[in-house]
Metallophosphoesterase
Amino acid sequence: MIPYLLGSFWYNETSMPHSPDHHDIHYPFPHGLIRRLRRLRFGPNWLRAGGVALVVILVALLRGGWQLVVALVAAGVSALLYALHVEPTRPRLERRDLFFPNLPPGLEGLRIGHLSDLHIGHRYATQNTRWAVAAMLREQPDLLVITGDLVSYAENIADLPDLLRPLHAPLGVFAVPGNHDRWEGLEEIITALEPIGIEFLLNTQRRLVWRGTELTLAGVDDAWNGRMDLAAALADTPQNQFSILLCHLPDMLEAAAARGVDLQLSGHTHGGHVYLPWLGSLVLPRHGWRYSIGHARYAHTQIYVSRGLGGLPLRLGCRPEATMLTLRCQPFTSSLTT
């Protein structure tokens, strides 16, 4: 955890363009580091990981002496270098079937391409986004969605049209903003992307028809900055019509479930940047504590949380991701193929 905080702070202070906003990464050390700590959650997974590391070090001292401790430290440094320079450059296409007992037969097989957290402006983000766009062109989804944080810095808004212009789908390409989009200039992002066919859903919805069956696609504005209005986004949804909600912050799931949403697509967490077997996501932001990565369910509502394509270039067990989701009409379960 300490290498993550110090390394990410150093990276942002020395390698990234700065814009005049209120992000904690623009505060001088140590104040910026303290603000970063306040935005993270050190929950049970982090405590378990710290406990395991402490036990390993103590056993190494007792059984192998300082030589073994040095070897463990060297392995840790190697893992950190891998997490900084290798894994962030290796995006993965996830293909997942989602099963719904209430899915109308006409929507069986509907394929949704899901991109999130492009974070253009961070290292590796542009190359990962180009890879994801090419992957979506190969996969040819019926519907394409982007769940926020398209940029990390205002000066990179101008890069978005050329990167995303190739995206297309029969039912359309839709997006919602994330917290970074609001911070850096959402109006400018919308102005840049609407001419190339990407429509933003800001507390509103669209009725889509696929193979003669109608569904509702709703999207909400950024909840981090208090602009989300879930009631407005879902106000006109017909009863018993299958509904999909685009919401950057995954922890809005329970509110979405209370309003009858069938599927929520989100991002924001980057999967926790560090994901360890049996321990899960270790480093999570506000509004991403309960549903941090992949597929989950609350009541009758399912959610898929993308690991995203960009963000701070530190990932371990948590490769960048583009996602293909296929809707299936069967009792609740899920399957994952790659």
About this structure: The two ends are 30 Å apart (CA to CA). Residues 2-85 form one domain. The CA atoms of residues 59 and 229 lie 53 Å apart.
